[in-house]
Fold this protein.
Amino acid sequence: MRPFAQGRIAAAVFTLLGTGVHAQLLHPAAGAAPQFEVATVKDAHGAGQTFSLMMKPDRFIAQGAPLDRLIRFAYDVKSDRQVVNMPGWAATERFDIDAKIGDAEVESIKKLPPDQGFQEYRLMVQSLLADRFQMRVRTETQEIPVYALVVMKNGPKLTPSATLPDTHKLQLPQLHFTAAGDLKAANVSMAFFAGWLSGRPDTGDRIVIDETGLKGSYDFALEWNPVLNGSTLGGANSGPQQDSPEPTLGDKPPLFTAVQEQLGLKIESRKAPVEVLVIDHLEQPSAN
């Protein structure tokens, strides 16, 4: 494992807050991103189509992860439209990563709210990309079509998450979902949920911004008929670019309808300025 310089914990901030820019990328506070204590990066030769990113209290583990997905994770990229100059090989080259978090950082992360704790992992991956892949980036603002997640007239159908009695446990957002359109969410904020909705086939690869005004974290379930490569599992196109998609042939409703009926929320079409990540330099990883 290659050692990193010890980095301080710095809660993530969005530097453009208050400017009217939506879907900001993740930036470290005061320009200093926390770092892993040590990390190994290996080519994942022969990896299949699936990959995993695992956050443990003291580690970050990626298995068979494409580099472009690691970049999206690190900067909280919501859609492919939000990245410029991504090299083609970044989508095909896969990597196994085992990165250890220093003891001091582990204790600091435990004291953060769930979303901020999750962001610390993203920021440490930013440091890893800069150190091992020599990644250099900058940001721009562009106005593009987006969707807004809003609360319906009768209010949301969400259950506030219970606070764990053991405050020393790491309470990260949990989203478990299948390709068949079954989602179980625990300890999830609406901003986090909007991020998950973003860039999906169901939403036409658009960014979804949180305009619910709901604070805190929630537990909820969602069942829908997902769009896969432009068509639903039931065989009918649910029209992700439409504000009110037509019913599908499957037993479950399309995503837009499911969000309204099951969560008391609505996805509306908008245009908004968003922050875009421009990649100026990226290399194959340095040796461990």
